# Entry
Amino acid sequence: MTNRLREPIEEEEVEKKLIVEEKPVKEIPDNYLVQFLSKRIFNAEAASNALPFVLFLALLGMIYIANRNVAEKNIRDIDKISKEVKELSWDYKTTKAELAFKSTLSEVAKRADTLGLKESVQPPHKLEAEEVPDEH
# Structure
């Protein structure tokens, strides 16, 4: 091929025509698999007829996956809340034990002593009220 402007070279055109040769199409061997996929069940018409069902199955698969993800999220939330409940239960038991300890007689006496109050030595006595007759 030479470098020429505007001068068509006939040899190059002939070479281009020769290059465009078509290869012969190879025939598909006629075995069981080819017959099964092309002639019996899986042909274009059967595939187009089955397309709505395949799309329905795909939709069910997506719903199944989404449902599983939601269920796993709920399980994680339940575990987190149950741990929080256990922690709050421990706090409640600790606070209840501290209150029981602080409300004992000796602890109340110690705290009252800091305020200047003293424990009574005399036993308590009963107050009695006189009954007033009803005037009606």
